[in-house]
Specification:
Distance between the termini: 146 Å
Number of strands: 13
Radius of gyration: 55 Å
Strand content: 15-25%
Bound molecules: adenosine-5'-diphosphate
Order of helices and strands: HHHEEHHHEHEEEHHEHHEEHEEHEEH
Shape: elongated
Number of helices: 14
Length: 498
């Protein structure tokens, strides 16, 4: 080889070496020039150039992949601070990175959704917790403010809770009671004929027992207790203890018994009185009739044969006897009210027409006007209701003002009762006498001014009480009076159940 050729070869080799060196630092900018000699060196150059091409493209891909990987890593870093707003970029390569990016994006979406649901759930949980705390407060307030003693025990009757009322009722503080066996600090006795066995059996079968028993403690006298005992169960329904709610009914029972006793006594004395009034008025009628007829006979036969004084005395005697007759008759009427008559459906239009017939003469004499509308059918003692309307209308006419009497009868239904109003334009009644006039024999006027016995309104009161209602008056002197009374609209059911 000529020195010139050798030089050229070494130059070419140097260039190739340089190129290889560059390649080793990933610099693919330079390409080997091919001499065109088509010799071995050219083919080495071609091979090297294509190797450089391959490397270059690989390097480009590597960089791109690095970038994509960085993007993925950054996204992953974002995940660690729970920021899912950015998404991993997906190329068109459809390679593992793309799959990874797509997977990550999906994961981000799911995580985002999971976190937002978790946040929502957490918020709900916080709310539920605060509601629970509030409810607990309320339950605790109820637990401690209720007048009933409340205690809980475990299954071996060891006390686990004890409220304020229990402290007062049994004389042990919460601290003293908790941990103790209930039967060691409260002594209970069944009320014969009931037994503890019965209550235990009921607890076993129904899970709850309600009943009465005697209880005492070293510092508390025997108390009559109404108790409601039931199982305490866990969330799975398994019994874990007992709940006892106890009420001291000693005083209440005593009061009930007293009232019952007094009511019985009252009933008895009322019946006795009625009996007495009935017998007295009934039996008095006969001798009275005799007195009246003999005094009248005396008057007839001796009127002009005796002096003025004697005439006047006889007049007094006749007057007194007939007044006594009216009184006795009224008393008899009064005592008959509670003699039970069966209730029946009563058409008040018919009743009122009957009453007006009986009052025909008075109505005509006084020019009285009596109106009513829309009166209901009532389930009542027909005769007594007639008597009630008779008394009220007769009074309205009797206690009239200078104007002709105008009487307006109305009725309205409120809840389960009818409220009747009998309104007149008469002389009226002072407020302070509104109650007094319903008392037997109480009158506000002399018999000369207004005849009467003072028994009419007390009969009305008794009739209304028999129908479980009330009667009262609203009035103003000179402006007329309105007598109100009520009758239960459901008396038919009540009477049927009695
Ligand atoms: P009597 O009518 O026999 O006096 P009552 O018991 O019916 O007895 O009435 C008692 C009293 O109530 C009457 O004396 C009268 O003073 C008063 N009173 C009753 N109804 C009316 C009325 N509609 N207007 C004014 N006063 C009345």
């Amino acid at each position: 080889m000529s020195p010139k050729n050798r030089n050229k070869l070494s130059e070419s080799l140097e260039s190739i070496r340089e190129q290889i060196l560059k390649l080793s630092v990933s610099d693919y900018t330079k390409r080997l020039t091919i001499s065109g000699d088509n010799d071995d060196l050219d083919s080495i150059c071609i091979a090297l150039n294509s190797l450089a091409d391959v490397h270059e493209s690989k390097e480009i891909k590597r960089r791109k992949d690095k970038q994509r990987l960085n993007n993925i890593l950054e996204i992953l870093l974002d995940y660690s601070v729970m920021d899912f707003s950015r998404k991993a970029e997906i190329g068109h390569e459809g390679d593992e990175f793309d799959a990874l990016a797509a997977g990550l994006n999906m994961l981000a979406q799911e995580l985002e959704y999971a976190i937002s649901s978790q946040n929502k759930f957490a918020k709900e949980l916080i709310k539920a917790n605060s509601d629970l705390a509030e409810n607990n407060e309320k339950i605790f307030a109820v637990f401690n403010n209720t007048p009933d003693a409340i205690m809980t025990t475990d299954l071996s009757y060891q006390i686990t809770e004890w409220n304020k009322a229990a402290e007062q009722m049994y004389g042990y503080t919460r601290e003293e009671a908790i941990g103790k066996k209930a039967d060691k600090i409260i002594f209970s006795e069944p009320i014969p004929p009931h037994t503890f066995e019965e209550s235990r059996k009921e607890m076993r079968t129904k899970g709850i027992w309600r009943g009465e028993l005697w209880q005492s403690t070293p510092t508390r006298e025997k108390m009559l207790i109404y108790t409601v005992s039931s199982y305490l169960r866990n969330a799975d329904g398994v019994p874990i203890g007992f709940l006892g709610v106890n009420r001291d009914i000693t005083r209440m029972r005593k009061t009930e018994e007293d009232i019952l006793h007094k009511t019985e006594e009252l009933k008895r004395s009322n019946t006795e009185l009625e009996q007495f009034a009935y017998v007295a008025s009934h039996d008095l009628q006969e001798p009275l009739r005799m007195i009246t007829s003999y005094v009248q006979l005396l008057e007839k036969q001796y009127k002009d044969k005796l002096d003025e004084n004697a005439n006047e005395f006889i007049n007094f005697a006749v007057d007194g006897a007939s007044r006594m007759q009216t009184l006795i008759y009224s008393l008899l009427e009064y005592s008959r009210i509670n003699r039970i008559q069966p209730f029946e459906w009563t058409n008040l239009d018919e009743t009122l027409n009957e009453v007006l017939k009986d009052l025909k003469v008075t109505i005509k004499e006084t020019n009285a006007k009596i109106i009513w509308d829309n009166l209901p059918m009532v389930f009542a003692d027909k005769v007594l209701i007639g008597q009630l309307f008779f008394n009220l209308i007769a009074n309205a006419i009797k206690f009239r003002s200078a104007d002709p009497p105008e009487i307006d009868i109305k009725c309205e239904k409120r809840d389960n009762e009818f409220i009747f109003a009998v309104k007149d334009n008469g002389i009226g009644i002072k407020k302070e006498y509104a109650d007094k006039i319903f008392v037997i024999f109480q009158r506000l006027h002399s018999k000369d001014k207004y005849p009467g016995t003072g028994i009419g309104l007390s009969i009305c009161k008794k009739i209304i009480e028999r129908h479980e209602g009330r009667i009262w008056v609203e009035s103003e002197i000179g402006k007329g009076s309105t007598f109100f009374f009520t009758i239960k609209s459901n008396l038919i059911n009540r009477v049927k159940h009695n």
